[in-house]
Amino acid sequence: MNTKPVEQTEPIEDPNAMLEKALIEEYLQEKGYTHEDLKKLPAKLVEKLMKEASQYASLKMEEVKARAHFVKELHDDASSLEK
User: On the CB side of 21, how many CA atoms lie within 13 Å of its CA?
Assistant: First the structure.
């Protein structure tokens, strides 16, 4: 087997990562915190907040995904009527 070394490339960021980060920030802000504030809080509180923020972001991202799927279905249905 002949293998070539992997060339240095830029890491590919998950396209949803930016949205997830923004949603986590949004959740924290709604609770009155920033990422900087988390450094000053007790570890148990930080863990609790981050779990809640992660769940919030996951639910919101599922909502976005469902809406995108719905819009695609609407467009697909409209396309079939045009033929």
Answer: 7
- Between CA 41 and CA 45 the distance in angstroms is 7
Q: pLDDT tens digits for the chain (83 residues)?
A: 566 665 666 666 777 889 999 999 999 999 999 999 999 999 999 999 999 999 999 999 999 999 999 888 888 777 776 65
**Which DSSP string corresponds to 23-82?**
HHHHHHHHTT--HHHHTTS-HHHHHHHHHHHHHHHHHHHHHHHHHHHHHHHHHHHHHHHH
Report the first-to-last Cα separation within the chain, whole angstroms: 51
